[in-house]
Amino acid sequence: MYKSFFGFQQAPFDKGIDSSMLFQSEAYKEVLARLDYLKTTRGFGLITGDPGVGKTSTLRVFADSLNPSLYKVMYFPMSSGTTMDFYRGLAFSLGEQPKFRKVELFFQIQNAITDLYDKRRITPVFILDEMQSASAQFLHDLSIIFNFDMDKRNPFILILTGLPTLANRLALNQNRSLDQRLVTRFHFSPLTPDEVRDYIKHRFRHAGVSRNLINENAYEAISSSTGGYPRLVGNLVTQCLILTFQKQRDLIDEEIVFAASAEAGI
């Protein structure tokens, strides 16, 4: 009901927003620049950040920007299944019927990547999400699977992404060989207070409302309460809109923000 009350054509913080309409924060622009560099050089890249900071949505923008006739994008969250499930899924996504033995599976994956890149002129792009939960053995295996011609070339793009602890794990001696192969790395920071204001207005405009619905003190309270994390900003502002509608007010103030924060547990 709050949508029609304020004149929104859709929920302003709908997760299904088109990737071309995402808010371009400084962190967003920087990570896309790093990924564009990785597209040129190929090899390993690392993106870290806290939950809700915008890693996955930015990677979706990058994936959507790739020409499907030149790149084959494969996304794997490490939270689903075992490491062997991942290896088999990797082979299957490359068009192979997965082998059962681990060593045969590795050769199968390597051969499929080489065939895709050398014969079909398509660069495989692997996005491995939630990698902070990957085992030390799995991180070691990645160095083996993605080692081509004694590490002389990179016929692939592989993006590791996860929480900030992932960077700390890669810095350990046991993972140093993988860490040293990173072509680029980036830590995703939350929105600044000014960006929080611009982000909210951006999402409102794309939902069909251009007029201001939030006063300046409320913007400051939203930024302070959420720490600038886009997911939390969206949750909090949505709750603010609901409370403002229930009170039949026209503007979100700091009182509404504090009440909404308590209800949303933020």
From TrEMBL:
<dbReference type="InterPro" id="IPR052026">
    <property type="entry name" value="ExeA_AAA_ATPase_DNA-bind"/>
</dbReference>
<dbReference type="Pfam" id="PF13401">
    <property type="entry name" value="AAA_22"/>
</dbReference>
<dbReference type="InterPro" id="IPR003593">
    <property type="entry name" value="AAA+_ATPase"/>
</dbReference>
<dbReference type="InterPro" id="IPR049945">
    <property type="entry name" value="AAA_22"/>
</dbReference>
<protein>
    <submittedName>
        <fullName>Putative ATPase</fullName>
    </submittedName>
</protein>
<feature type="domain" description="AAA+ ATPase">
    <location>
        <begin position="41"/>
        <end position="187"/>
    </location>
</feature>
<dbReference type="InterPro" id="IPR027417">
    <property type="entry name" value="P-loop_NTPase"/>
</dbReference>
<dbReference type="GO" id="GO:0016887">
    <property type="term" value="F:ATP hydrolysis activity"/>
</dbReference>
